[in-house]
Amino acid sequence: MLEMTRIFKVFYEGTPDEKIALNKVDLSMKQGDFVTVIGSNGAGKSTLMNVISGKLSPDMGTVMIDGTNMTNLAEHKRALKIGRVFQDPMAGTAPTMTIEENLALAYNRTKKRTLSLGVTKKRRDFYREKLEMLHLGLEDRLQAKVGLLSGGERQALSLLMATFTDPKVLLLDEHTAALDPSRAELITNLTKEIVDHLGLTTLMVTHNMQQALDLGNRLIMMDKGQIIFSATEEEKKKLTVEKLLAEFQKIKGGGGLSDRSLLS
Predict the structure, then answer these.
(1) How far is CA 242 from the centre of its chain?
(2) More confident residue, 252 or 230
(3) Measured distance CA(157)–CA(160) in Å, rounded
(4) Residue ranges of the domains in the chain?
(5) Domain 2-263 class?
(6) Lower Cβ count inside 10 Å, N or C end of the chain?
(7) Taking the CA of residue 135 as centre, how many other CA atoms within 13 Å lie in the half-sphere pointing to its CB?
(8) Whether pLDDT at 147 is above 70
């Protein structure tokens, strides 16, 4: 479903600030794979997500989604195949519009453009049905402005909107990091429920190592623009945070990689 081959991306090339953000990265994901990504700040995680989404173009390499070469396709054109939830709960929704209007925008993303949001009774019933999956009572608040919702409620709505159009690939970019622990746990549980229910191919960046172990069927760790560790489903089941840190220390030769650097 997702195939990244020899992805190379450098920033400020030829200057004293030159930084290799991705260094010949290969990543392959089958339909339904849920891969969690960990690594310290500057490891290349966000750049990886931005190259997949089309926000950034790689200097070398190819990005294939569902058998289609997306490498040079604009971000808005890739949106037909990609859903994304950002760290900031404010980023994925329009705060001055109602819940219903936000859902209509998400629903119509892959439809022919018209001047109407097209909120019919049938569509409204559909929205309520989907909102019930969140267990937050939002199905009874369709006319509420999204800007009045809590951060957790907005992030739950963003997650639902990102999956509305059955994307080929779902990108979760530290989507629980800005929430308090109880809301983060809520969104984590919703993520597992929705991804499992829809069978979505998902890539999730997180600084929470336990979350990276609890979710998904595969795990990768990035450092200095490369994937330095990868765990299959069976290997991941045997991992603990302590074993993961020990593995990283071994790979880095005791070079100071710690839970503090990973979670900072």
Answers:
(1) 25
(2) 230
(3) 5
(4) 2-263
(5) alpha beta
(6) C
(7) 8
(8) yes
